[in-house]
Amino acid sequence: MDGKVAAKPDQAAIASPRRSPSQQRSRERVERMLAAASALIAEQGSDAMRMGEVAERAGVSIGSLYQFFPDKQAIVWALAERYTAESQACISAALEDVGDVEGFKSAFSELVDIYYQLFLAEPVIRDVWSGTQADKALRALELADSRANAEFLVAVLKRLRPDTDPVELETTAFLVWQMGEAAVRLAISVDREEGDRLVAAYKRMGLRELVGE
Amino acid sequence: MDGKVAAKPDQAAIASPRRSPSQQRSRERVERMLAAASALIAEQGSDAMRMGEVAERAGVSIGSLYQFFPDKQAIVWALAERYTAESQACISAALEDVGDVEGFKSAFSELVDIYYQLFLAEPVIRDVWSGTQADKALRALELADSRANAEFLVAVLKRLRPDTDPVELETTAFLVWQMGEAAVRLAISVDREEGDRLVAAYKRMGLRELVGE
DNA sequence: TCAAAACATGAGTGAGTCTCACATTTGCAA
DNA sequence: TTGCAAATGTGAGACTCACTCATGTTTTGA
């Protein structure tokens, strides 16, 4: 809501640092800025995070902050990108050596659990993710990422179900993946017991859809 | 992102007009304010909507705006509440006289289509919905609403599948409902053709889950 | 008819983002 | 070693809002 974007940059210079740190010193400072931002988001959410606070906690001036991040949003994006990369690695690792349907089932289940635990434990991810819904550019980023992740599923499914129509496979995988993100988001916003039930129900649902009854 | 909430009201006086219009004149003015806000949200999104602009377009002063809405958020909420009420009516109408499984299938399918069309056609709904993800209070409102809607499903399912465990039924219905909202949201953010495929896939998935193969 | 309640107004307040003119440090070639 | 250009660093203050409040105007109802 709202937004104090002083000079609306029209076509946002999406997520790219205004200048990328080339010296060791500045690279460390940028790290400190990200760490400070991460801590503040964890404490109060990105909406309540103040640029001045980030600068202060990182031990830099506000000008330095804007030297490397074009705007407040960009800091959130930078954090989002890290988590994205991290989870990509997680996913490919979990799925790459699946050989049969049983293997797939347990890999899928494990994957969902990892996501669930990650969201439960990491307030920053939750925050970034909800920003993702409101912000057009972030949403696009997330969709692309989600598609990439669904591709991992498709790759595996093509081996397990070689006779299924590829387009259908693609659609199903993408849908199931997105449903998974929605399910986890839902699960963490209700009490733990119900959350667990919902995640379990999602697993059944997703697996039924992906590899049949 | 961001937020210019000047005097953070601590425990937000959720969505209740600061003063409800009692005279005919002011009721009309409030209508104009909501209409102006709705138009502006449709044009640029609620984030870019400026209170000054709303006032100007409604032909009232900014002070009058704050006479009836405690803050910017409240305007979005008021709009959200209208749509919520509208869709509630829609849902109960579609589900109330379902007698058998076949009837349920077509009612469910119709319901999903209505939602899909609604989101495709109404930019304000889309915007309000995404705000719902970022804002804690709005999210709670939406969850409660979603639960209420899922109850309609549960009521019907209890008739169709009287031998199923009620808790499981509840969980499944709630999950399927939320998945539906996520599916529609997803569908409108990709191109039309893929969106249609995704919605169709969701229908299969939801029905399979709710009334079996 | 008149006082109280409801309504209307918009300049002003303050919180917060982002800029910019100027200072300092680093890398590196002469 | 020296010196200069590029990279960095700084923070006062410009600017953009959401929201307030002191001060009028209109409606209601007794």
UniProtKB/TrEMBL annotation, chains A, B:
Chain residue ranges for the region called Disordered: 1-28
Keyword DNA-binding: yes
DNA-binding region: 50-69
Keyword list, A-Z: DNA-binding, Transcription, Transcription regulation
Residues of the HTH tetR-type domain: 27-87
Superkingdom of origin: Bacteria
InterPro entries on file: Homeodomain-like_sf, HTH-type_TetR-like_transc_reg, HTH_TetR, TetR_C_22
Protein's name in the database: TetR/AcrR family transcriptional regulator
